[in-house]
């Protein structure tokens, strides 16, 4: 079933709604925030379609700074301008910052304990699994991409090989693969 038109989908009611939504999102997203963001904004709240989410996430990734913070700014700005962007940003950062500072104080007391190191390794593995699961869920959005699933996959594999295997810096890989991908998408749309 196609998604409802943008004017009939649920929308945040106020900047306070954005603040609350992004605070809850940030509190759920330790280490694996992509999975949480996609589930909350696309599946639960339905503020974005999968295609819109993929587009917004792509833009958020190429901007400097944390991806999810960039996404919060974009969504807040889309709905309520600067006040919405600031509310979404505050929601992403205020409570999590206080919790991280509290956790840093606790960690300083137990940093040398082997159980603390083991727990952090376990959390890292779980976060990696969440990221892979989100990527697989978002593959369906490639059906409507102008480049098509095959070419998008080729760019994705090339990016993985360049960054993970060859250890090239992302600031070089992004223009090397991103600019041709944008140019090809532009040509296909025209």
How are the elements arranged and paired?
Elements: H1 15-28, H2 33-44, H3 50-62, H4 67-110, H5 114-138, H6 148-165, H7 170-189
Helix pairs in contact: 1-4, 2-5, 3-4, 6-7
The amount of helix comes to over 70%
Structural class: mainly alpha
Mean pLDDT: 87
Radius of gyration: 19 Å
* Helix/strand order, N-terminal first: HHHHHHH
Count of structural domains: 2
Number of strands: 0
> Low-confidence stretches at least 5 residues in length (pLDDT < 50)?
none
> What count of helical segments does DSSP give?
7
Strand content: under 5%
Largest sheet: none
Kindly report how far apart the N and C termini lie: 27 Å
The geometry reads as: globular
Q: Explain this structure to me?
A:
The protein has seven helices and no strands. By secondary structure, the chain is mainly α. The protein folds into two domains: about 5-145, no CATH class; about 145-190. Helix 2 (about 35-45) crosses helix 5 (about 115-140), helix 3 (about 50-60) packs across helix 4 (about 65-110) and helix 6 runs antiparallel to helix 7 (about 170-190). The longest helix has about 45 residues, at about 65-110. It starts with 14 loop residues before the first helix and ends with a helix.
List keywords for this structure.
2 domains; 190 residues; single chain; mainly alpha
Short recap of the structure:
The protein has helices at residues 15-28, 33-44, 50-62, 67-110, 114-138, 148-165, 170-189. With 190 residues, the chain is mainly α. Helix 2 packs across helix 5 (114-138) and helix 3 (50-62) packs across helix 4.
